[in-house]
UniProtKB/TrEMBL annotation:
InterPro entries: SNAPC1. This is snRNA-activating protein complex subunit 1. One of its GO terms (molecular function) is sequence-specific DNA binding. Coiled coil: none annotated. Pfam families: SNAPC1 (PF09808). GO terms for cellular component: snRNA-activating protein complex. One of its GO terms (biological process) is snRNA transcription by RNA polymerase II.
Amino acid sequence: MPPYQFQVRVGGLYLMYAVYQIQPISPKAKIRLTSQQWDDALYFQQQAKLQSHLDVVYIFNRLIQEQAFQFCFTSQEIGTQPNSHEGEDAEVDLADEMKEEKCIINKLFNYENLEQLSYLQDQYQRMKVALAGPKATKPDKSLNVVKEEFVEDIVL
């Protein structure tokens, strides 16, 4: 989205909406977006709102409402089957893209986020023990489906 003028992006949004709506299959194929593409799309929506292009905001919100977006790690699908139509250039691009996404993941798992996750995990564990009964020291087996060291496993 970013390298194009606003009018071109509006046209692209309308085309994306039209193609999504006329799909003859059920369920409809989703529009793949990486986190950077999603950020760009949200910025585009803000620009449209500031410029009073309410039709553009409506179309974008409609796509969100219909859950038309699939949030992905990379813009290309990755599978176990090699694609015969892609060459080494695609592998290099994918490697570069994965390096960029690794940086995003590192930002996600910063100290503050992990600390908050640890706090929520502790609360969750206490609630499960409380549900097991007043004299319980461990959660019921049916509630014990998440590892207690969840946050520590992420860090290591």
